[in-house]
Amino acid sequence: MTNAPPTFAARIARKLLIDLSIMTAVGLVLAVIGPFGTAAQPLAFRLVSWIALAWLGYAFYRPLAPLVGWLHGQLHLPRVALWIGLTMLATIPLTAAIWVIEFLPGPVPAPALEDALLAYLNVLAIGASVTVVFYLLERGKAEPAAAARPPSVPVPGEPASVPETPRQPAFLDRLPAELGTGLIALEMEDHYVRAHTMLGSDLVLLRMRDAIAELEGVGGAQVHRSWWVARDAVERVEREGRNVRLLLPRGLVAPVARSRTAELAAAGWL
User: Fold this and answer.
1) What is the 3-state secondary structure (H, E, C) of the chain?
2) What is the pLDDT of residue 170?
3) Which end of the chain has fewer surrounding CB within 10 Å, N or C?
């Protein structure tokens, strides 16, 4: 008897529990260290305040992951640059929130420019460090188990095999829950595969052929050496001379290799 795959809600709950555990650990470390002049405060107060601030920072910084994926797919800007820029932007309201909380329940004074800048840099130093940790965890979350799977390259036009159980393709388990399961395409980037979904994109440390092997049961084809496309995701076919491109959701464009044009045309793709 096989175990049923975790539900979407279960995956979200598990990820949230892991993330908040990490942030709690970060809060504990900061409480013990007592940075930014808090070492003189009682330990119990530091524990409560730093753990609460760590959770508050998580609420501000964690949404950056799907936002970076979405912006990268829309604007084609480097992901690292997007992470840096969005982290700096997210630090502004977080700094303001921390400033207000620090003076509650009494009146909240307006900070001088120097104080505001110092508070911003302090929050940014911690927030950026935690963001880097989550960024590295996202990049390194791919499991090496795919290397043990027999590689296979699908033939365009073959009907998608029907799985014996409703278990979702193994590759989709590698994606962050916030990206959903509406897979559009796979794009090869160096030693990674970028998975494009209807909600954004993310890198997975995996060979293209192994990623395709994990998509057994999903209708699609490898239309180019560096692109696999889901059959239902093709919105329009664009031709320019001998060049053929597939127009996909979210403004994505997948080139079609000339060596595969005839085969795809015979299968009804073009």
Assistant:
1) CCCCCCCHHHHHHHHHHHHHHHHHHHHHHHHHHCCCCHHHCCHHHHHHHHHHHHHHHHHHHCCHHHHHHHHHHHHCCCHHHHHHHHHHHHHHHHHHHHHHHHHCCCCCCCCCHHHHHHHHHHHHHHHHHHHHHHHHHHHHCCCHHHHHCCCCCCCCCCCCCCCCCCCCCHHHHHCCHHHCCCEEEEEEECCEEEEEECCEEEEEECCHHHHHHCCCCCCEEEEECCEEEEHHHCCEEEEECCEEEEECHHHCEEEECHHHHHHHHHCCCC
2) 87
3) N
User: Which residues fall within 8 angstroms of residue 229, CB to CB, at 6 or more apart?
Assistant: 184, 185, 220, 221, 223, 246, 248, 254
Residue 258 main-chain phi, psi, to 5 deg: -60, -30
Q: Residue 59: is its pLDDT beyond 70?
A: yes
Which residue in the block uniquely carries the two structure tokens 């597939």?
Answer: 246
Is-contact 179 244, C-beta < 8 A? no
pTM above 0.85, yes or no: no
Structural domains present in the chain? 8-140 (no CATH), 157-266 (2.40.50.1020)
216-260 pLDDT tens trace: 888 899 999 999 999 988 988 998 888 899 999 888 899 999 888
